[in-house]
């Protein structure tokens, strides 16, 4: 079966599909010894593909759900030497990458994989999966603040999509609240900025759910492999929303 060259490179864990296209366009890729720069070329498992002279090997696809602790970088590498989410995957030999981001001081559910096709699908702007967070905020929310979050707030000239909001607990003496919020986009610092916008600055934030996936059974810093049916359901979600 033949597949597009950039997809094969992405699936091998070398780069995202977009970066793979740049590698092809700039002459870094050869197929059967010939440099290719055109998009749309298809290859089969019998073709010899090299990137910068290194033969492409198809890694086994792996999928992990990590309970990211606070104080860990969402990256495969960090030039400052700080601990990354990949450092927490003890014993994993495959080269995996995080799907999306969680801030340094945000904990919670994070997916990591070497499946470029699924990762790109999940991160595409058109894929608006439910992401549920629990935030500890300063102050006691009033009805109008909650309505603003539910209807969407304007950030950098764009309005967020309507959110689901639930107050879990309030502590009037200590002047803080625990709020659960479900959003659909993945804008930079989105939950923190939404809360700040309505006057409820965030002290702590954790992502508790991504689509149908939860942190059940995991402690901070632990991870597990996704089950076959979970991977299939994620693919089904991506394919459904791309139609």
From TrEMBL:
Q: Tell me, which GO biological process terms does this entry list?
A: enzyme-directed rRNA pseudouridine synthesis
**What terms describe the molecular function in GO for this protein?**
RNA binding; rRNA pseudouridine synthase activity
User: How would you classify this enzyme at the top EC level?
Assistant: isomerase
The entry's protein name is Pseudouridine synthase
Q: Can you name the source organism?
A: Schleiferilactobacillus harbinensis DSM 16991
User: Could you name the domain of life of the organism this protein comes from?
Assistant: Bacteria
- Tell me which SMART domains the record gives: S4
Enzyme Commission number(s) from the entry: 5.4.99.-
List the keywords (alphabetical). Isomerase, RNA-binding
Cellular-component GO terms for this entry: cytosol
The record's comment on protein family reads:
Belongs to the pseudouridine synthase RsuA family.
Q: Which residues form the RNA-binding S4 domain?
A: 3-70
Q: Which Pfam families match?
A: PseudoU_synth_2 (PF00849), S4 (PF01479)
